[in-house]
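Morning F.,

Quick status update on the modeling queue. The single chain you submitted on Monday has been processed. Sequence for confirmation:
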Amino acid sequence: MKKISYTILIFFTAAIWGFVGIDQAGAENCWNRNVLGYEHVFWGNAMNSNVTVDPGDLVRFSVEGEYPGDNYPIAGEDCEGVPVQFEVYYDGSSTPVILVSGNLLPGSSIPGYITFQWYIDWSTPNLYGGNYRFKIVSLAGYYWNSVLSSNVLTVTGPPVPLVCSVTPNPASGNPPLNDVDVAVAVTSGFSQASKFLVDCDISDGVNYISGPVLTNSSHTFIDVCDYASTGIFTVRGRVEEQGSGARPPVECDGIVTVIATPTPTPTPTPTPTPTPIPTPTPTPTPTPTPTPTPTPIPTPTPTPVPTPIPTPAVPTVSIYCNNTTPCIIDSGDSATISWNSAGATVCVVSPGGWTGTSGSQSTGNLTADQNYTVDCSGPGGQVSGSVLVLVQDTGATSTGPFKFNNPLGTTTIDELLKRLVAQLYLFAIPIVVIMIVYAGAMFVIAKGDQQKVSTAKRILLYAVIGLAIILINIGFRCLIEDILNISPPSPGC
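Structure tokens below.
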């Protein structure tokens, strides 16, 4: 029966702090405390710690949030239509048995609090006898790493028996009939994680082909059965629930008909008979013949064509590091691993053990290269992807100024020329004097040796020329400034 005349609440004491890489504050505007009940709930009322229901009773998930920003004077987040997901677990089990999804609906204000109630109704949970716990795993499309509720939802009554169906595709054809798909589905409503099996022909004994363990209620075996000869074959499917609280396995049958199309018999060609020449006879007066009333031909009723069960698409998945692949970070930094899938129901990222069909997580500080892999499974099969985080050693970097010392202490061409001329005075004058003295000495000791006399003359000539150059240094400096077009000219030029 529907217990909707009173309100019973379950507090989820989940501390949800594991959300990474999203606007967490925005999501928290739609979620503060979450409860389970039957109607509108109010946090100010007295509440029971647990809830007891019968199989099929209405259950309401409620969360405390802010007032709708577009309907009330208090500014806040408008949570209407925000998608939310809860996972249901057997008490004592770490494996979810079902995923409850919905979009938040507005409830009413909460007495004593400046907050508002948002909820979704789980109209046909179809749970059976046992204790269950819950946790939020997704809000507004973002992954939430919550813990299980501290209290329990107790469902009374006996387990609902498993019922399944088998649908071969195609179900008939000419021999050889190969690559027949077989869909095995649970038709009795709720089903926890189950293993699917199929036997293409039970006439030669039961020989099951094992399929995957899935949390959804159906699985299609692709190109699993071949029939070489004609006949009517019984295909058998089997569903085996896994984990604690598993119900007895169930089997179900389907039929595949293989019929040979008969070869048409050729029609013999008739032998022509000679046509006799008719003897003319008198034409009698024709007697009017009544026109017969035509008999209506009955319209056959068309035979309905069975609608084929669509084959689930193979799931796809992508994984990135800092929104690219691969990515490079400095040693000791962290990276953000994000992944997204389509057509998948379960995804696990390792290392890290992160779950969810999409989401993002921080790697923490890394000092060595690390490869991250995501494995996903769904009705259409399994798929995986990976991304590499490369860690580089930044090393030491110089941050000081870079400069050279100027040993001459000059900043202009003019100052440089003055400094050079001054140095020439210091060195050239003594050298000239030494050369003149040396040339005179050679004249004295030559004693008529023409070679020594010539050498002494050259030394004296070079000394005189050098002295002349030194004496006219100012004119030489002015000439250089004029060639280099230095403006204004130095004093004395």
